[in-house]
Amino acid sequence: MRAYDSLRRRGDFARVTRRGRRRAGAFLTCFVADGRRRTRVGITVSGAVGIAVVRNRLRRRIKALLDRYPLGMPPFHDIVVIARKGAGELAFEALAAEVGRVLGQAG
């Protein structure tokens, strides 16, 4: 069972990016806003990252990292993770370090 739910509505993404605290790494940006009942996470991958195959693979990798390390996420918050250009070429270990660093700053 996942430690978080997914952000799905465009308005929820907009609210988090508008009102949330911003933390940026070299390849990822994270916005964290106060949530309601449970932690919710939304992942967006910029078109500059690459073709759809690369973007979807990166999205799956980030989800796998969040499933593996749920303790790094702030509880009861809405989180938006934005992957930027260059993130698609990162090795899994480097991506794990980047996700941990950005979420650690956000906590």
Automatic annotation (TrEMBL):
A molecular function (GO) term: 3'-tRNA processing endoribonuclease activity
GO cellular component assignments: ribonuclease P complex
Enzyme's top EC category: hydrolase
InterPro entries: Ribosomal_Su5_D2-typ_SF, Ribsml_uS5_D2-typ_fold_subgr, RNase_P, RNase_P_CS
Any one Gene Ontology BP term: tRNA 5'-leader removal
Pfam families cross-referenced by the UniProt entry: Ribonuclease_P
Keywords, alphabetical: Endonuclease, Hydrolase, Nuclease, RNA-binding, tRNA processing
Domain of life: Bacteria
Reaction(s) catalysed by this chain's protein: Endonucleolytic cleavage of RNA, removing 5'-extranucleotides from tRNA precursor
Keyword Repeat set for record: no
EC identifiers of the protein: 3.1.26.5
TM stretches of this protein: none
Oligomeric form and interacting partners: Consists of a catalytic RNA component (M1 or rnpB) and a protein subunit.
Function: RNaseP catalyzes the removal of the 5'-leader sequence from pre-tRNA to produce the mature 5'-terminus. It can also cleave other RNA substrates such as 4.5S RNA. The protein component plays an auxiliary but essential role in vivo by binding to the 5'-leader sequence and broadening the substrate specificity of the ribozyme.
Family label: Belongs to the RnpA family.
NCBIfam families associated with the record: rnpA
Full protein name: Ribonuclease P protein component
Species per Swiss-Prot/TrEMBL record: Vulcanimicrobium alpinum
Lineage of producing organism: Bacteria, Bacillati, Vulcanimicrobiota, Vulcanimicrobiia, Vulcanimicrobiales
Gene expressing this chain: rnpA
